[in-house]
């Protein structure tokens, strides 16, 4: 099956478009950040896709709200036995160890979160969140060193910041890259894709043809990485 892709902004909403050998148009909303993707029959014109998205905006917003509510309701209790992910690998949480200091270690299939005796779930959660942020910052540094000269740009600052609907963002005027700490739970290939994506925005602010051409030039398999990052849709609708 042959595919092509594009990126549109509709009513302030970023939409990934994938053209496929299919008969009907499908709209999907992907966790954890509510990314919207349209799978469209080949040769579908842009106006048709935009109209379809606009017509389904109330549905899209409901799915995003459901996603955010589900995230709050399913928030980890930070108890031993829970499943957590680090760089795409699955670990079983163990909080049985105590110490006078806070530490996290992923070893074997166990994610150890060590805190002082009496630390509650919020304290353990904060400890793990800080560790994810440190992991992400440590992984980003060599990626920036690798990709900035290849792309021919240089960011002034990289900020790890939790975002509800984005994996990353580029503030072009200050040359600042923002990265979602949730990326530390994904395969490192996904982080590399986001780094390249945001650095490319220092050359091209939008997501038009030039941006896609640059991404194809810098990272030919970026679509595969993007799909891996945004796998498992929360919801999907289709129509003919």
Task: Tell me the major beta sheet.
Answer: 5 strands, mixed
Poorly predicted runs are: none
- Order of strands across the main sheet: 1-2-4-3-12
The CATH topology annotation of the largest domain reads as Zincin-like
Helix content: 25-40%
The DSSP helix count reads 6
Please tell me the overall pLDDT.
90
Termini separation comes to 19 Å
Shape: globular
For the CA atoms, what is the radius of gyration? Answer: 20 Å
What does this structure look like?
- With 240 residues, the chain is of the alpha/beta class.
- It has six helices and twelve strands.
- It has helices at residues 46-55, 57-73, 121-151, 188-200, 209-218, 222-229, and strands at 4-10, 13-20, 25-30, 35-41, 83-86, 89-94, 103-107, 110-114, 157-160, 168-171, 176-179, 235-239.
- α3 (121-151) packs across α4 and α4 (188-200) crosses α6 (222-229).
- The protein starts with a strand and ends with a strand.
């Amino acid at each position: 099956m042959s595919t092509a892709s594009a990126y549109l902004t509709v009513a302030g909403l970023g939409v990934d478009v994938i053209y496929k050998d299919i008969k009907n148009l499908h709209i999907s909303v992907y966790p954890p950040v509510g990314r919207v993707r349209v799978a469209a029959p080949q040769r579908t014109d842009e106006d048709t896709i935009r109209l379809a998205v606009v017509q389904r905006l109330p549905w899209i917003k409901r799915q995003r709200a459901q996603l955010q509510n589900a995230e709050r309701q399913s928030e980890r209790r930070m108890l031993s036995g829970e499943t957590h992910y680090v760089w795409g690998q699955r670990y079983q949480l163990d909080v049985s160890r105590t110490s006078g200091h806070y530490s996290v270690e992923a070893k074997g299939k166990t994610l150890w979160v060590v805190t002082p005796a009496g630390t509650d779930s919020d304290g353990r959660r904060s400890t793990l969140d800080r560790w994810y942020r440190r992991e992400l910052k440590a992984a980003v540094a060599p990626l920036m060193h690798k990709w900035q000269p290849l792309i021919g740009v240089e960011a002034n600052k990289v900020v790890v910041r939790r975002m509800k609907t984005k994996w990353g963002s580029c503030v072009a005027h200050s040359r600042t890259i923002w990265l979602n700490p949730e990326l530390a739970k994904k395969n490192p290939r996904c982080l590399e894709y986001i780094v390249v994506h945001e650095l490319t925005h220092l050359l091209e602010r939008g997501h038009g043809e030039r941006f896609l051409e640059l991404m194809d030039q810098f990272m030919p398999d970026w679509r595969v990485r993007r799909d891996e990052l945004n796998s498992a849709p929360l919801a999907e609708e289709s129509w003919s």
